[in-house]
Amino acid sequence: MTLVTNAMDTSSEAGAADGRRARGLESRRRIVMALIELIREGKIAPTAEEVSMRAKVGLRTVFRHFDDMETLYREIDNEFQAIVLSWSHEQYEQGDWQDRLIETVKARGRLYESVRPFFLSGQVHRHESVVIDSSIRRHIELERASLKKILPKELLADKPLVEALILLLSPNSWFRLRRDQDLSFSATLATLQLAAKALLSR
Which of 15, 43, 66 is the last residue of a domain? Predict the structure, then answer.
């Protein structure tokens, strides 16, 4: 009888632990999705309180799953990097390297529009977040690597030209034109393509 009782108790405890684990995973998912939703809606610096309200969990639950906001940013960065990496795998085989470069400008524009709220949020928090700072640095290196796949060797040897292109085709340039100079997507694209052609024809 004792053995049967102990087995039932063990089974009950295991079931309770599984239930807590499942609830914990669900709470974590809701917290991450809440932060993503808030940022996508334009709330580029959501607080832990806002996240907890959107996720419909207590503030203590937010910090129980994520010791601080830095840990939460790491979860968001995983999604951001997945979007960026999917773009980096695009290949442009048609035309010469100039054609592929111009096509890359268009692809980057689509990428920047899709990650716009995350980029702006990252700029706000970069000074206080090692995760975000590292993410931005990785993205710059990815931009550099993608250019190296396109430019011919003689141009790659021209370091000032390469650095100028990296700056020109960066999200900073894109959002300066889109936000501060109030250009449409097509006007921004045309402006950067023109600038790239002018830079390469110097």
Answer: 66
Would you state the structure tokens that stand for residue 91, as one six-digit string? 């290949």
156-180 pLDDT tens trace: 999 999 999 999 999 999 999 999 9
Query: Is 196 found in the same domain as 117?
Result: yes
Residue 195, domain extent: 69-202
The total domain count for the chain is 2
Residues 48, 60: Cα–Cα separation, whole Å: 10
Burial string for 27-37 (b: 16+ CB within 10 Å, else e) reads bbebbbebbbe
Encoding tokens for residue 25? 């995973």
pTM of the model: 0.72
pLDDT digits (tens, 9 = 90+) for 80-96: 777 777 776 555 556 78
Asked whether residue 56 falls in the same domain as residue 116, the answer is no
Residues 55 and 80 in one domain: no
- Domain end marker among 10, 45, 66: 66
Does 157 lie in the same domain as 75? yes
Buried b (16+ CB within 10 A) or exposed e, 112-144: beebbbbbbbbeebbeebebbeebbeebeeebe
DSSP track, 118-129? HHHHHHHHGGG-
Alpha carbon separation from 10 to 15, 22, 25, 131 (Å, rounded): 9, 18, 22, 41
d(CA 168, CA 105): 10
